[in-house]
TrEMBL record, chain B:
UniProt name for this protein: Skp1-like protein 4
Domain SKP1 component POZ intervals: 21-52, 88-147
Name of the gene this protein is made from: ASK4_4
Family membership noted in the UniProt record: Belongs to the SKP1 family.
Keywords: Nucleus, Ubl conjugation pathway
Pathway assignment: Protein modification; protein ubiquitination
Source species of the chain: Quercus suber (Cork oak)
Cellular location(s): Nucleus
Region ranges (Disordered): 1-36
GO annotation, cellular component aspect: nucleus
Cited function: Involved in ubiquitination and subsequent proteasomal degradation of target proteins. Together with CUL1, RBX1 and a F-box protein, it forms a SCF E3 ubiquitin ligase complex. The functional specificity of this complex depends on the type of F-box protein. In the SCF complex, it serves as an adapter that links the F-box protein to CUL1.
CDD domains from the UniProt entry: BTB_POZ_SKP1 (cd18322)
GO annotation terms (biological process): jasmonic acid mediated signaling pathway; ubiquitin-dependent protein catabolic process
């Protein structure tokens, strides 16, 4: 039997490959598009339609209804809908497994995007008498590059998605103010890279995840919600220089109970704070760590008054671990640390060693400057024999050693960065 | 003569299916003849008795003497034999010139062949220029097996979408597709050409199972797929589709 090195699979006709793919689990079916360009072409048939702005809702609705989730190659998963003046606006809608829909808008010419305000009402009864006949329930929606010419069409399409749970809005040039009014079904909201966004108003009862990247806008939240997962990447600074800290207060409330956070130090600096009264508790010896850390966020502080009250309440987690005097509290649960972007190797090593001493468990520390080359912290045993003694002494030093392993194996992906 | 022909038929039938229901006919002078129920039902009288349920598995009293009984039995038997001989057969000819004679009902598992026969275009042989003898013999094996299991009904409908642990053919099917890739793909193409849904689903699902759980690179290695993406193109495609995997 001769060795088979021919690619017989790819030479099968399209319908047969479609049938094979229909037996794959829907999440991984799309991965076949990475195999080769021939496989990618299977997934890239586009249905092209022209119509009016008003008819966009029906067009999308029908497109969604015809899609066959169990046999994803049977119908095109992409719709290119031309609408508006001179059919210049193009809406490209793409369906993916697990009820995901991606809608990207574009205009033929790269015009300056006029600034606009947008009120997005989700899960409301649609104003027209279009019944929502879509059998494909959109649960996750990505909106990219919505502009002032397309916002109306998008709004009416989106208001039909009664089962929407996750919304992601990215790269909307010209978007100045955004008001989102949603039902309790919406659990996750992400807004990335909308450069002109000055004001964001969220009316959403049960939001559990909020991710934002861009200049810090005016953030208003009507109802308080408790976030489990918050990414507040405001590293570009405030959107206008008259940044007032009271604009940020509502966000603070929402993240108090989060399990995953991304934060920028500057948003938490109390840069106007001159006088601070601090009440702390103490259990068998005062632990100053929390205070010291907080003081580092108060660059303008002039007067500090510390009161230690042994009866003062303390969060249960911090008091159960040790009866002995602990001058410096330990990080009981810390397992993995990744340091990115340190320009000075000494600083990096110092912080790493410091964290090692603070941790209780065996700590995995990985450092990288460019995200590609990884180094991990290892102990270096220096053997120091002493003459005329029966036992020898080891001192521990640390250094970073290059790792060749796959970054994903060494530590889990950051839930936010890399999005 | 009569007795000997009776015994011949019975033993053939025994070989074929041990589970066929049998009845015993007892002549008036006490001799017993065990025959297949279907054979005995050639007699309307016996048929009614059986259908009315007025008998035990042992005795059917017939007021016919032994020799008469045996002779009528032999007649009955040979009629059935003749009938079986009349099952329609068709001949399928592979691309490399080999001929296969199969029951028409088995051949009709293939929608393509079914249409040819129904259109009256099947005279002597049906030529299948797209299928080699090696593959054709396997396809026939599949059709035979599935037709048997389905019984006398329309072409068998085997569903491969559910976990068919209740399907007795599952094990047989699993063994059937344990072949090298060349053969597997030839079977796919043959099932497609001959329009045999069950076989097409079985073979396609087998390929899908070979892909499940593997990374794209692993799939490429398994099937010798050449990666014709440039690194930039590949990165672009991954970036474009990233949202679908979040």
């Amino acid at each position: 039997m001769e060795e088979n090195t021919l690619d017989l699979l790819s030479s099968l006709p399209d319908e047969i490959l479609g049938r094979i793919i229909s037996f794959l689990p829907s999440e991984s079916a799309l991965q076949t598009s990475f195999l080769s360009t021939r496989w990618a072409s299977l997934w890239n048939t586009v249905l092209v339609q022209h119509g009016t702005t008003e008819a966009a809702v029906t067009a999308i609705s029908e497109f969604l209804t015809h899609f066959d989730e169990l046999n994803p190659l049977r119908q095109p998963r992409r719709l290119q809908y031309h609408f508006g003046k001179g059919s210049a606006n193009i809406l490209l809608a793409t369906i993916a497994a697990n009820n995901k829909l991606h809608m990207e808008l574009s205009t033929g010419k790269q015009e300056f995007q006029k600034q606009f305000d947008w009120q997005l009402g989700l899960n409301h009864q649609s104003l027209t008498d279009q019944p929502s006949s879509s059998s494909f329930f959109v649960k996750t929606l990505f909106l990219k590059s919505v502009g002032f010419q397309s916002k109306e069409a998008v709004s009416s399409i989106v208001s039909n998605f009664q089962f929407l749970e996750s919304l992601k809005i990215i790269e909307c040039n010209g978007l100045q103010t955004l008001e989102i009014d949603s039902s309790p079904r919406l659990k996750s909201l992400t807004i990335f890279d909308c450069p002109q966004l000055k004001s964001l108003f969220i009316r959403s009862l049960k939001l559990r995840s909020f991710r934002y990247r861009g200049l810090l806008p005016r953030l208003l939240t009507e109802n308080h919600f408790n976030l489990k997962d918050a990414m507040l990447d405001f590293r570009q600074g405030p959107c206008d220089n008259s940044f007032g800290s009271n604009d940020f207060d509502p966000s603070l409330l929402t993240i108090k109970n989060a399990e995953i956070l991304t934060l920028c130090k500057w948003t938490f600096e109390f840069y106007r704070l001159k006088e601070l009264w601090w009440i702390d508790n103490s259990s068998e010896g005062y632990n100053s760590d929390a205070l010291i850390s907080f003081l580092k966020l108060c660059p303008a502080l002039e007067q500090l008054f510390v009161t230690v009250d042994t009866k003062s309440y303390s969060m249960p987690i911090t008091t159960t671990y040790s009866k002995k005097v602990a001058r410096h509290s330990k990080l009981e649960h810390l397992k993995v640390v990744k340091l990115v972007g340190f320009t000075n190797e000494e600083d990096e090593l110092l912080l790493a060693v410091h964290l090692t001493k603070l941790a209780v468990k065996e700590l995995l520390i990985i450092a990288t400057a460019d995200g590609i080359c990884l180094r991990s912290l290892v102990k270096v045993h220096l053997y120091q024999p002493k003459l005329n003694q029966t036992h020898v002494k080891y001192t521990h030093n640390y250094k970073f050693v290059e790792e060749n392993g796959d970054i994903n194996e060494l530590c889990v992906n950051h839930a936010h960065m890399g999005l | 003569m009569a007795s000997s022909s009776t015994s011949v038929v019975v033993s053939n039938k025994e070989k074929e299916n041990k589970n066929t229901k049998k009845v015993t006919l007892k002549s008036s002078d006490g001799e017993s003849f065990e025959v297949d129920e279907s054979v005995a039902m050639e007699s309307q009288t016996i048929k009614h008795i059986i259908e009315d349920g007025h008998y035990s598995s042992l005795a059917l009293s017939l007021s016919v003497k032994t020799t008469m009984a045996s002779s009528s039995t032999s007649v009955v038997v040979s009629n059935k034999e003749k009938e079986n001989k009349n099952t329609k057969k068709v001949t399928l000819k592979s691309s490399d010139g080999e001929s296969f004679e199969v029951d028409e009902s088995v051949a009709m598992e293939s929608q393509t062949i079914k249409h040819i026969i129904e259109d009256g275009c099947a005279n002597n042989e049906i030529p299948l220029p797209n299928v080699t003898s090696g593959i054709l013999s396997r396809v026939i094996e599949y059709c035979k097996k599935h037709k048997e299991a389905a019984g006398e009904s329309e072409p068998s409908v085997t569903s491969y979408t559910s976990n068919s642990t209740t399907n007795p053919l599952t094990e047989w099917d699993t063994e059937f597709v344990k072949v090298d890739q060349n053969t597997l793909f030839d079977l796919i193409l043959a099932a497609n050409y001959l329009d045999i849904k069950g076989l097409l689903d079985l073979t396609c699902k087998t390929v899908a199972d070979m892909m499940k759980g593997k990374t794209p690179q692993e799939i490429r290695e398994t099937f010798h797929i050449k990666n014709d993406y440039t690194p930039e193109e590949e990165a672009e495609v991954r970036k474009e589709n990233q949202w679908a995997f979040e």
